[in-house]
Amino acid sequence: MEVIAKGAEANLYLEDNIVLKERIRKEYRIPEIDEALRSTRTKREAKLLSLARRAGVPTPVVLDVDNRSKCITMSYVDGEKVKYIVDTLSEEELNRLFSEIGSLAAKLHRANIIHGDLTTSNMLLSQGRVFFIDFGLGEVNPSLEAKGTDLLVFRKSVRSTHYRREKEILEAFFSGYRSEYPEGEEVIERMKRIEKRGRYVSAR
What we know:
Elements: E1 2-6, E2 10-15, E3 18-23, H1 31-54, E4 62-66, E5 71-75, E6 80-81, H2 91-110, E7 113-114, E8 123-126, E9 129-132, E10 139-140, H3 144-161, H4 166-180, H5 184-203
Helix pairs in contact: 2-4, 3-5
């Protein structure tokens, strides 16, 4: 098996177009707590991947969940991380791509799915389609606060990673979000309020 990614929470292995995501032990945690956390997060992520697909958001297909080894087996999506292609896109391509990403984020929120780490590192472009990956920090939560926070994570990540094209990206993203989720205007307003609260706390 080829190691294709190592993260703080999990390692990813690839073999025969199948990806194995193994949630790794944390030695600093009490073993019983570590076991429970990894078990809960593994089951939750597998569920969220499946729920997202049902909501119309392309994700890897979950093939198996092994709770003993804390592993999810899923299909391999052969694509490029959106993070690495932003600077290669024309203005028209960028607008089209991020309008689609905004629409997909809206589909998640309409289904009360919170991604938890909504960044261009967790989006793959494969054969013209955008796939959302890594729902390890996600949850099902209908609250405006959770959805607003999800959008704020995206906004902040764009500011730090793609600051040269921030304005174009965010305009296209929120245009796509609003078109897919008319009630999402409340979410956007909540995002702005959360951001203001953060600035106020930082300034104190």
